[in-house]
Amino acid sequence: MEIIFKKDYLAHLYEGHTKPYKEYKSNPSLVAQYVKTINKLKSITKIEQLYQIKSLNYEKKVGNLDGISAVWINKQYRILFVEVASKPCNATIDLLEIEELSKHYQ
Question: What pLDDT sits at residue 79?
Answer without folding.
Answer: 95
